[in-house]
Amino acid sequence: MKFGLNFFPSFRLTDGSTAEYFAQCVRLAERADALGFNSVKAVEHYFFEYGGYSPNPVVFLSAVAARTRRIRPITGAVIPAFNNPIKVAAELALLDNISGGRLDAGFGRGFIPTEFEAFGVSMEESRARFEEGLDIVTRLWTEERVSYEGTFHSFRDVRLLPRPVQKPHPPIWVAAVGTMESFVWAGRRGYHMMIVPYAGDMQRVREMVRAYRQAWRDAGHPPGREQMQSSLHCYVAETHRDAVEGARPRVERYIDVFGEAVSSWAAHRSGQYVGYSAMVDSIAKTTVESMLEGKQALIGTPDEVVEQLRYHLDLFGEIEPSMQINFGGMSDREAFRTLELFASRVMPRFAPA
């Protein structure tokens, strides 16, 4: 079973500086590399303290690639609607070269109305821009010269440099939260999935995961070769009380900054994001207790986290937990304790027999 780290900034400057946060992330990534973790993921968001300190995951992941030897950097995710796909293809190919062919390339649609407004992009175009952008990127990676006439981008005779190390191209992942169409589309195309189970009803997410796996098989892709990452908050301590009380202010900070970022959903509706207003309201009411009750996070002693992980495996099938271990302005002591306890007392319980 594979395990990964997910660096999603969710702090205020009263908790520490941006420079301190990313220095902590790099140290954690270095240690995770030595401990046998599989991946390090970084986000693309803007303007808010919910993710906004990470506007370009490629920049951060290049630093991680330079300080590690085996762990795989994964963009979680690049947003084609906010970027020129030629530039995205070139930057990701460069990261694949810098990392020695370790890149996993994750793409998403974006979901925060204010971000779309600032970039002058309609949310009603998000799916079309996402699909066109991803089509352009893959063609640039695999064809010597590309001409393209699309709805949003047109160009002639473009030759991408550098070329990716991995052939035919780096593994492609799609980030999806609550839209069945996204899950089915990714399965048909043979792309891997990044899910966020705490962002919705767990049984509903289970249905979408099953639909994804079925679409994968129906499209003729090798059964069982699909991969799935599940984003989960993780806080591990020696006692249940220490874990819950330690995680509480971090979860509260995360929900606090999340609420600010998505407040514009109160006055926004989009046919491309059916049900998102209800999902946003649900997350805004999240507490440590609701996370534990709904088994939406990995919080507790090592033994408790093992049982929580088994629940997720039973619910979704084979997954790679992609864990936020330094969310909400967390200290070095807390983050490294979670990392070390997870590596020494949780991971071995899922090792092959």
Written account of the structure:
The longest helix is centred in the C-terminal third of the chain and has 22 residues, at 240-261. The strands form two sheets. Strands 1, 2, 3, 4, 7, 8, 9, 10 and 11 form a nine-stranded parallel beta sheet that branches. The protein has a two-stranded antiparallel sheet with strand order 5-6. It has helices at 18-35, 57-67, 85-98, 113-119, 126-142, 180-189, 202-218, 240-261, 276-284, 288-293, 302-316, 332-345, and strands at 4-7, 39-42, 72-75, 105-107, 146-149, 154-158, 172-176, 192-195, 228-236, 298-300, 320-324. α1 packs parallel to α12. The protein has twelve helices and eleven strands. The N and C termini lie close together (11 Å).
How are the SSEs ordered, and which strands pair?
Elements: E1 4-7, H1 18-35, E2 39-42, H2 57-67, E3 72-75, H3 85-98, E4 105-107, H4 113-119, H5 126-142, E5 146-149, E6 154-158, E7 172-176, H6 180-189, E8 192-195, H7 202-218, E9 228-236, H8 240-261, H9 276-284, H10 288-293, E10 298-300, H11 302-316, E11 320-324, H12 332-345
Parallel strand pairs: 1-2, 1-11, 2-3, 4-7, 7-8, 8-9, 9-10, 9-11
Antiparallel strand pairs: 5-6
Helix pairs in contact: 1-2, 1-12, 2-3, 3-5, 6-7
